[in-house]
Amino acid sequence: LVRLRARLARSQNSLGKGLLTLLSREHLDEDTWEEIEETLLTADVGVAPTQELVDRLRERVRVLGTRTPDELRALLREELVALLGDYDRTVHTESPQDVPGVVMVVGVNGTGKTTTTGKLARVLVADGKSVVLGAADTFRAAAADQLQTWGDRVGARTVRGPEGGDPASIAYDAVKEGIAEKADVVLVDTAGRLHTKTGLMDELGKVKRVVEKHGPLDEILLVLDATTGQNGLIQARVFAEVVDITGIVLTKLDGTAKGGIVVAVQRELGVPVKLVGLGEGPDDLAPFEPAAFVDALIG
Ligand code: GDP
């Protein structure tokens, strides 16, 4: 939490602090409520959630009457946590069958997919799990090397194929390797070309189908770059049409004041943000915990 707070402090604090300052005004007139709305919209919270939150805040402030700073802080905290929703945010890697848990990581290139896969491997290994990495991003030339570097660093074997090889066959081999090694988890990094939806659908669909030949797929994590705002939402929509996303990883939250995208993307997909990326380093992947997140926002 301390680390999360420090990371978010630089970029996001303005959102929570801004809201708190506005709410603390003696007279909460229409202009102030509009400013509150604008603050939320600027932070990418999205139109409908912003409206809901403002309505609830207005109602609660009205009921409260005079407000002490502590009361306001508590009220804002509660409402923001409620806005983030009550989801199961566990990354499920316990396969119900006697095969490794399989997690497929999808997203547009550049969002931090490979880095996230590496960081997640590190978390799992630190948790005592044995991990196999599948370098099925054969589109980006350096992706397999990059993943292997992560694998070597954290102690996970990396299964890779020839450059430009068939992603599905690499994914298949990775899971096969995981089964042979009796690994606990196989993480499959995929390519995120958004050139055409059919191309993406064909490729990811095929990866998914071949992986499922070995057993159930436990998670499909969508990696989104928090700094891309509306564009990220459009990407999310496209991917959700192609595969059944089970969780979202929001990366680069350290580099944006637009943390409200967490709310917007969950609404868009109806799927929880499970992990957040807070930097480029190996320890910069954290479980997403609404209460801690909001505490970091409000400061
Ligand atoms: P991919 O093409 O989606 O696999 O993207 P990469 O994993 O290669 O990441 C693209 C860039 O984003 C790299 O320079 C990463 O170090 C950086 N990156 C990834 N996650 C984060 C994050 O949470 N915060 C920051 N600041 N940078 C990140």
TrEMBL record:
Keyword ATP-binding (UniProt): no
Secretion signal span: none
Catalytic activity: GTP + H2O = GDP + phosphate + H(+)
Start and end residues of each SRP54-type proteins GTP-binding domain: 272-285
Topology relative to the membrane: Peripheral membrane protein
UniProt main location, coarse: membrane
Binding site for GTP: 107-114, 189-193, 251-254
Keyword list, A-Z: Cell membrane, Cytoplasm, GTP-binding, Hydrolase, Membrane, Nucleotide-binding, Receptor
Subcellular localization, as worded in the UniProt entry: Cell membrane; Cytoplasm
EC number(s) on file: 3.6.5.4
Subunit-level organization: Part of the signal recognition particle protein translocation system, which is composed of SRP and FtsY.
Role this protein plays: Involved in targeting and insertion of nascent membrane proteins into the cytoplasmic membrane. Acts as a receptor for the complex formed by the signal recognition particle (SRP) and the ribosome-nascent chain (RNC).
Family: Belongs to the GTP-binding SRP family. FtsY subfamily.
Name of the molecule in the record: Signal recognition particle receptor FtsY
Taxonomic lineage from the root: Bacteria, Bacillati, Actinomycetota, Actinomycetes, Kitasatosporales
